[in-house]
């Protein structure tokens, strides 16, 4: 990371971002050697990322060929407007995380169910979703990413802008803010 002052070191904040981000982006290496990025729903638990997909397709082909993956999540916090006298004041405040690891296709039925339970708990925390249908389980694949490396980056601004961004994060305000 070029600007060390933007390094995010608070693991609690990184975990909170992983647990609240609705979409993550999976980076794989395509058959042609080009990187591929796929947005997906995911759940984070105990240094692992879980997601589900169909039992066939590009994602799984790429993971079977090369299990090394990157995974990214980000949180837009605020857009800071430039002014007539200072257009360079315009900026974007954010938090982001990049994970490098190995993706493993889950064969164990108990772990597959655990991965699906984690996804349901994240996206439907009120419960009430019932038991998984056997015919759906048979055509669903669960993938686990073992986290080898995690790095976070953030820019929360300076002075009053930073105070406002931090307060919005503490209060759980709807994001992104627009700061004049």
Structure commentary:
This protein has 180 residues and is an alpha+beta fold. Helix content is 28%, strand content 39%. Strands 1, 2, 3, 4, 5, 6, 7, 8 and 9 form a 9-stranded mixed beta sheet that branches. 23% of the residues are buried. The model has no long low-confidence stretch (mean pLDDT 93).
Explain the layout of strands and helices:
Layout: E1 7-8, H1 11-20, E2 24-29, E3 35-40, E4 43-45, E5 48-54, H2 58-65, E6 68-80, E7 91-105, H3 109-123, H4 134-137, E8 140-155, H5 159-171, E9 177-179
Parallel strand pairs: 6-9
Antiparallel strand pairs: 1-8, 2-3, 2-6, 4-5, 5-8, 6-7, 7-8
Notable features of this structure?
180 residues, alpha+beta, Pnp Oxidase, Chain A, 9-stranded mixed β-sheet, 39% strand
* Low-confidence spans: none
The gyration radius over C-alpha positions equals 19 Å
CATH class call: Mainly Beta
What does the overall shape look like? globular
> How many domains would you count in the coordinates?
1
CATH architecture classification name: Roll
Assembly level: single chain
Order of helices and strands: EHEEEEHEEHHEHE
Largest sheet: 9 strands, mixed
Task: Say which CATH homologous superfamily is assigned.
Answer: Electron Transport, Fmn-binding Protein, Chain A
Short description:
This protein has 5 helices and 9 strands. The protein is α+β, with helices and mostly antiparallel strands and 180 residues long. Strands 1, 2, 3, 4, 5, 6, 7, 8 and 9 form a 9-stranded mixed beta sheet that branches.
